[in-house]
Design a protein that fits this description.
The chain is mainly α. Helices cover 86% and strands 0% of the residues. It contains seven helices and no strands. The relative contact order is 0.11.
């Protein structure tokens, strides 16, 4: 894999990390926009989030922004990593191919994204112990998804 797509996989990893940094920056910006520099304690924050109009709007806007960013990241990565590992293509082509797959298989991709989210939620609720099973299963399933969409 590293001989075939190592450099391009590296670039894809940089793109993914960059989007994570942007995601965190958006979250901080939204928090500061709604609460300013007066940072409440955790208990006060929970009360404000669910009992005030400002808190509920913050939760709604935060979730909308997070969903947009998550959709973007999912769209550019869903088949790009397996594609880079399997074929000699550049990371831009892999991202474009991934987005095309999402656009042409919208309902199935939404179901796949929800399944990934549920499996990761289960892993978090298990104290991350379930990740030992969930990550290999997701990796294997992602490979087969890629093979069906691109190769098959």
């Amino acid at each position: 894999v590293w001989q075939r797509g190592g450099k391009e996989l590296g670039w894809m990893a940089i793109v993914t990390v960059f989007t994570l940094i942007l995601w965190v920056d958006f979250a901080i910006f939204l928090f500061l926009m709604f609460f300013g520099l007066d940072i409440p304690s955790f208990q006060d924050l929970i009360v404000v989030l669910f009992t005030t109009q400002q808190g509920l709007i913050f939760v709604l806007v935060g979730h909308l922004v997070g969903a947009i960013i998550a959709t973007f990241v999912f769209s550019i990565t869903v088949v790009s990593f397996p594609l880079l590992a399997d074929r000699d293509v550049d990371f831009i082509t892999a991202m474009i191919t991934s987005v095309r797959c999402v656009r042409s298989n919208g309902v199935h991709m939404i179901a796949w994204a929800v399944l990934i989210g549920l499996m990761l939620l289960f892993s978090i609720l298990s104290g991350l112990v379930a990740l030992f099973v969930v990550l290999p299963v997701l990796g294997h399933a992602s490979w087969h998804l890629y093979r069906r969409l691109i190769v098959g």
